[in-house]
């Protein structure tokens, strides 16, 4: 007599839906965690510093994509802070490029990392989390913010899992390093 395989049924709860501002704050925490690990890694570990800088590059570029494709366009009429945030992304990109170009065994890398840390904290914490996000939560439709949160999370996951995205980011880093010579 054949035994029937046991079927395990698992009730999975749908993931909790979050407002776009919360999704972005959570990703800011990912960026801050990478920054903390990078700051704590000594010059004597240049390979680890390079790998962490690369991971920071990838996550920050993906963060810029989700904000610029989804969040900023949807919120541009809610707060004038969107224009400034877009401009800050250009500054962050420039600083990120300077960090990636620097040799992780040098003082220049340390200086670029310090500037990057300050720029990221200013943009994420002071400008977005303390000023822009509370304003958005006060004036934007809550259902829209939840729908945008779903879209942001989905887009970020698709970017992270995309081989094409990883290849493009790797190529961008390689080109930046090549121009540093």
From TrEMBL:
Protein's recorded name:
Hemerythrin domain-containing protein
Which segments constitute the Hemerythrin-like domain? 21-135
List the PANTHER family. Answer: HHE DOMAIN PROTEIN (AFU_ORTHOLOGUE AFUA_4G00730)
- A matching Pfam family: Hemerythrin
Superkingdom, natural source: Bacteria
Q: What organism does the record attribute this protein to?
A: Microbispora triticiradicis
């Amino acid at each position: 007599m054949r035994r029937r395989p046991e079927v395990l049924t698992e009730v999975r709860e749908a993931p909790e839906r979050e407002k776009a501002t919360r999704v972005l704050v959570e990703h800011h925490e990912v960026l801050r965690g990478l920054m903390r690990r990078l700051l704590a890694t000594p010059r004597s570990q240049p390979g680890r510093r390079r790998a962490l800088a690369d991971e920071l590059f990838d996550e920050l570029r993906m963060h810029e994509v989700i904000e610029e494709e989804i969040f900023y366009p949807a919120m541009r009429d809610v707060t004038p802070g969107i224009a400034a945030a877009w401009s800050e992304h250009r500054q962050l990109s420039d600083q990120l490029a300077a960090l990636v170009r620097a040799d992780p065994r040098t003082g220049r890398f340390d200086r670029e990392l310090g500037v990057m840390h300050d720029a990221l904290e200013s943009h994420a914490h002071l400008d977005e989390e303390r000023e822009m996000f509370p304003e958005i939560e006060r004036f934007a439709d809550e259902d829209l913010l939840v729908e945008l949160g779903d879209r942001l999370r989905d887009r970020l996951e698709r970017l992270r899992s995309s081989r094409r995205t990883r290849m493009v980011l790797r190529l961008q880093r390689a080109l930046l390093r090549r121009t540093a010579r």
